[in-house]
Amino acid sequence: MRTILKSNRVFASWVITNSCNYRCSYCYNNCSAPVEKWDIDAIISTLSRTGQKWCMGITGGEPFLYPDFINICNQFVKNDITLYIDTNLSIEKKVLEFAETIPASMVENLYISLHIEERERRNEVNKFIDLVNNLQNKSFPLQVNYVLDPRLFHRFEKDFEFFKSAGITLLAKPYKGVYRLRAYPEFYTKKQREIILKSSPDAFRRTLFYPGNVRCDAGRSLVRIAADGTVTRCVGDHTPLGNIYSGLSLMDEATPCKAPFCTCFGWDLIDDEDKKMLIRSALADKIVIKPLLRRYAGYYWRVLKKTLHIV
Ligand code: SF4
Ligand code: SF4
């Protein structure tokens, strides 16, 4: 897994659109949301006024659905802003155009997700393999993730071998949610955890943890751009830092996290001593009920938000 934390630039996590053409069974995104409209020139101007070097972490939904997406990537690259893109790789024509147009050297990572059931339903598994190999041949840095939804566990090892024979190494990505009244990733069995770790030794690094109020570098080396242009520290801690159109001020140093739990990049953004302390306190906490209740509460809140269309 490529870390988003680098000392020479700031990472902006940006949901360019919630809209998605896939309907994965384990997804809680509002995929039928309309595509937002962004003023890219204004975004670039705000970023350059900070005097920092930036990496745009463009996520969704499916980013390649955004109109004129390749042109937007080009604008960032021309302004020395590197790219880190989450994608399901489904919009083949645009991905090929991207590969022809954008220099691989300006792409920090293509965070590709293989949604195997959706691929099979569309009869597009071979298309996926060709596209990934094409990107690999052009030296784009990439990783291919496979969400270990408990419903897919029985087939993962077979899929892993199949894609390996096609030149693609799958990274198991733990499922975050509740299935048959069991909260994941906490309820993976020891054997399942071993299988996940075999394909992806860092797999559990970015799963949920409870930061307490440890000092985190989010707000200084990472920001989150919300749909209305508000810039906050991250997806969990909404401390405002400004607006992507009118200006933003980064924090000067790591400061205590205000979120009840971290589901994103926090493990990369807190220092090693705090990590050891968090592991010690998690091990000492014999009562697992509290974190699990939080997990269930988070899950039902996501379902409710999706039902009410407020994501
Ligand atoms: S591709 Fe991603 S955003 Fe789209 S439905 Fe699947 S998990 Fe959700
Ligand atoms: S620990 Fe996680 S939730 Fe807290 S500020 Fe850092 S990235 Fe955000």
Q: TL;DR?
A:
Helix content is about 35%, strand content about 20%.
What does this structure look like?
Helix 2 (69-78) runs parallel beside helix 3 (92-101) and helix 3 (92-101) runs parallel beside helix 5. The chain has 10 helices and 14 strands. The chain has a single domain, classed as TIM Barrel (Alpha-Beta Barrel). It has 311 residues and is of the alpha/beta class. The model has no long low-confidence stretch (mean pLDDT 88). It has helices at 40-49, 69-78, 92-101, 116-121, 125-137, 153-165, 190-199, 266-269, 272-284, 289-307; strands at residues 10-15, 54-59, 82-87, 107-113, 142-148, 170-174, 177-179, 182-184, 215-216, 222-225, 230-232, 240-243, 247-248, 255-256. The protein is globular and about 50 Å long. The strands form 3 sheets. It has a 10-stranded mixed sheet with strand order 6-5-4-3-2-1-10-11-12-13. It has a two-stranded antiparallel sheet with strand order 7-8. It starts with 9 loop residues before the first strand and ends with a helix. The site of one iron/sulfur cluster has 14 residues, from helix 8.
Q: Sketch the major β-sheet.
A: 10 strands, mixed
In total, the number of domains comes to 1
Helix content: 25-40%
- Summarize model confidence as the mean pLDDT: 88
CATH architecture: Alpha-Beta Barrel
What is the CATH first-level class name? Answer: Alpha Beta
Number of helices: 10
> Which radius of gyration do the C-alpha atoms yield?
19 Å
Which regions are unreliable across 5 or more consecutive residues at pLDDT < 50?
none
CATH topology title: TIM Barrel
